[in-house]
Amino acid sequence: MVRYLAFAMLVALSAIVPAAAQSVDEDNFNNELSYGINLNSNGGLIGGAFVRSSFFVSNGMYQFGALEIVEVKHPKEYRWYSTQTGDSFIDGKQNYLFVLRPHYGRELVLFRKAAESGVQVNAIGAIGPSIGLLVPYYIRYSNAQRGQQGTFDVTTEPYDPTVHNRDYIQGNASVFTGLGEASINPGLHAKAGLSFEYGRYQESIAGIEVGFLYEQYMKELIIIPNAENASGFFSVYLNIYYGRRK
Predict the structure, then answer these.
(1) Which of 44, 53, 61, 90 is most buried, judged by most C-beta within 10 A?
(2) How do residues 74-101 score in pLDDT, each as one tens digit?
(3) CA torsion sign, 51 to 62 to 242 to 72?
(4) Which pTM value belongs to this model?
(5) Is the pLDDT of residue 55 over 80?
(6) Which band of pLDDT confidence, cut at 50, 70 and 90, is reported for residue 5?
(7) Domains defined along the chain, listed by start
(8) Distance from the Cα of residue 75 to its chain's centroid
(9) What beta strand segments (E) does 31-153 contain?
């Protein structure tokens, strides 16, 4: 999938660069505020959300600041269902990994659309810190396995695959249960991509951004202890956004 997407981006870039050289000077917007959802190859159905503010630099060039909040999942995550309750949990998972990605970047107009219609194509590059939050993964566990029958026979505990028997797990607890115990892990990230947007100048815009992102942390981040974990993460992403410019 990654190879096919990379090839498609290169073909699109080679096709639109000549058009960019022929573009004429038009009115540029002063600033733009956009927001949307993130889908990526390291996340689930929806990886996270972001907000971005862009400012005019020169004809065809803009700078922007943005903040992304995403969840990074381990490729070995498998959902199991409790035979007692039917609720689900991730077998062997010890931590969630949530990432805050503030970044600064530049946006170059490759193909400018007409003022009232069409699609504008921009090349985007950005870099910034990654703040990885490892949040303990809590489960609801039946104490029947421990011989503790009684009124309070289910407890909420951090999942430890070496201690908890999968057959006695009744489901996962809320993600907010472990937020107060999150550990902070600093790193860096860089991203590059293309955006395809539709909208009239001075008004609302909508579009998609597709590209690649790599981030590197100072140490290995443990999500599933009994599987291979990593300190660096590569992903293909797709942002769907909406915004306004003036």
Answers:
(1) 90
(2) 999 999 998 888 899 999 999 999 999 9
(3) negative
(4) 0.83
(5) yes
(6) very low
(7) 2-245 (2.40.160.20)
(8) 15
(9) 31-40, 48-58, 61-72, 79-81, 88-90, 95-111, 120-136, 138-142
In this prediction, residue 227 carries a pLDDT of 93
Question: What is the token pair recorded at 136?
Answer: 């303990």
Q: Are strands 120-136 and 95-111 parallel, antiparallel or unpaired?
A: antiparallel
* Phi, then psi, of 220 in degrees rounded to 5: -70, 135
Mean local confidence (pLDDT), 161-182: 91
- Backbone angle region of 181, left / alpha / beta, with phi > 0 → left and psi within -120 to 50 → alpha: alpha
pLDDT of residue 114: 67
- In this structure, the strands spanning 169-172 and 204-221 are unpaired
pLDDT above 60 (res 1): no
Which own/partner contact pairs does 182-186 have at CB distance under 8 Å and 24+ positions apart? 182/98, 182/133, 182/134, 182/135, 182/136, 183/133, 183/134, 184/131, 184/132, 184/133, 185/131, 185/132, 185/133, 185/134, 185/217, 185/218, 185/219, 185/221, 186/129, 186/130, 186/131, 186/132, 186/217, 186/218
Q: Which two tokens stand for residue 177?
A: 């249960």
Q: Which two tokens stand for residue 148?
A: 């503790």
First to last CA, the chain: 37
